Amino acid sequence: MAAFLIPNHYLPWIAFHSELLAFLALPIAFAVVATGRCGVVRMGLLPIVIAVCSTIPLVQYSLGLIAYFGDALMYSLYLFAFLGAYLVGATKNENDLDWLRYFCWAIYCAGLISAYIAVVQWLRLEHSIFIADYGGGGRVGANLAQPNNLATLLLMSGVAAGYLCYRQYLKPWMFWCSLVLLLIGVCMTQSRTALVSAFFLYLTFNFIKPFSLQRKYTAH
Rounded to whole angstroms, how far apart are CA atoms 117 and 130? Predict the structure, then answer.
């Protein structure tokens, strides 16, 4: 959650601190999975494809298609991180619902705090070391300092809130109040990415009937 809320953004790598925190969390989660304490990883074709693709930047560097080794290494590391995140998420565990609940709470809280920060930035009241400076321009980014990323986080937070409310971990009135704040934050980002994401969420929840999810959760 700290990766979403850290306000440090400096050139030349503006998102370095946020991405560093995310990268530090990933090896810890992957190490827990690798020890076999969290269940069995459901392997398939996709991890193999990702692993092969992660070597492509290094091959391109050896062929002279990428000028700098550092660039090729970073591309490969990002793809390896994606592979690690996929393996962590694909781990089958008898406590799947507990992990999902903790994850949803983290995303939900990060979204609410980010929406509050966005409102503070929009009102030009961000006089705090804990809030990233807002450069103006009409589009807020909270501590992510990027409107599209903020809009994506707020939509994820809304989905997490819906799950918590569905599982009765969150009161309905709290869900609706939170949703209003999150949607206000999305509107302030003026993000077209949010519109596209909302469209696919609408298709998912209305046309792709989640019968499999219902069977899975009622089984518990």
Answer: 9
